[in-house]
Fold this protein.
Amino acid sequence: METASLVSTVSTHIDAAGEAELHRALRHFWHPVMYTDELGDGPQGVELLDERLVVVRLAGKVRVFPDLCVHRGTALSLGWVEDDQIRCAYHGWTYGPDGA
């Protein structure tokens, strides 16, 4: 079989299961989501590989967490930074630089 005809028979479409598998594999690599000078004083929400994340500067370093307060599921990107912690806008739960 010629290479050209072989290539034409291979599907280039990735279904939902294949896309999910690809996203799991890509989680092990670094991905730029914004420039540091775009990050202001407060948290900012971004999306990467179909996952909502919050980017925030805590204790002088840029941190990235799931954009989700574990208490009631509110987006942490709606909150603010207070005493080197991100504070959830809904019930005020706080998360430190280590995510705890």
The chain has two helices and six strands. The radius of gyration is 19 Å.
